[in-house]
Amino acid sequence: MSETKKRALVTGITGQDGGHLAKLLHEKDYEIYGIIRGQHNPKREAIVEEFPYVTLIEADLCDQSSLIRAMELAKPDEVYNLGAISHVGYSFKNPQLTADITGKGVLNILEAIRLTDAENKVRFYQASTSEMFGGLEYNRPEKGYNEDSAFHPRSPYGVAKLYGYWITKNYRESYNMFAVSGILFNHEGERRGPEFVTRKITKAVARIKLGLQEYIELGDLWPKRDWGYAGDYVEGMWRMLQADEPKDYVLATGETYSIEQFLDLAFKEIGIDDWHPYVKQNPAFMRPAEVDLLLGDPSKAEKELGWKREVDFPGLVKLMVENDLIVEAKNIKL
Length: 334
Ligand code: GDP
What we know:
Elements: E1 7-11, H1 16-27, E2 31-36, H2 44-50, E3 54-58, H3 64-74, E4 78-81, H4 88-93, H5 95-116, E5 123-129, H6 156-175, E6 178-184, E7 187-188, H7 197-209, E8 216-218, E9 224-225, E10 228-229, H8 230-242, E11 249-251, E12 257-258, H9 259-269, E13 279-281, H10 299-305, H11 313-333
Parallel strand pairs: 1-2, 1-4, 2-3, 4-5, 5-6, 6-11, 7-10, 8-13
Antiparallel strand pairs: 9-12
Bound molecules: guanosine-5'-diphosphate (GDP).
């Protein structure tokens, strides 16, 4: 064990942001510990293969004693809480599980830190989300949501995340912990799960191009999101924990686009100008309550952390379609 290397403990190491963060922390020469959940987790093998430098610890956000053990094993300088039930649609179907993991799980890990960190030195990052704002017309600031905007979550996921946000703030104020929330707007990329609309579209577009699929079924196409690249956003998380003071920050692009606009660009990548014949609407993919429009104002992070997204919207769509063309072509050969 090196005495000089910084040590990080990451929950959600098997997820999209966990992968990007593991790469970033490795480049920065951290000793990295990742929490992996469940017996025979099917993602374990892939993680071990891609990130041999990450030490995996079996623990669960619902089991506080396992988190205390993880803290004792990892002895981290920084903890990144990226683990959660993170899909809005799924959270409507599993609201209690979402509350337990996405909400109360944050309390469990904060308590594990408080009980093991006698010197109060650990820095804690909580993955908060733009879904806490809700996107309703009456609570929408013109320049986009910022750190002072009013919350109005529209899903069990958003409500659970709001608890995580407040309990993080509460531990900062109550125990003087360096505990912060990054309020991240949608961030996508080649590691995004296919249950999210961007990856669902780019995967389908690649398969349509390769003759593997005829059309794609989607829910509502009018909602707008502030979509950035996940690789840029993990840099912002890290910067929040290197700051002099613990503060919450919005990370966003400051631009918003509809799903229709995403479809326009994705299909253009494979030479199709009119996507309508390839898209069918299916109410199964519509939500009981929808977030109409999300637009973030990242000026505080830009000014205080020197953070700015590098990949723009067309760049993101292109990167994702190009990646899926390679992934899907490989699947044919197998
Ligand atoms: P979210 O912003 O965290 O909910 O991210 P998603 O990628 O899951 O959804 C983004 C938007 O796409 C939401 O407004 C969804 O209602 C909408 N959407 C439309 N069709 C689909 C679909 O087939 N799957 C998903 N996941 N979202 C869809």
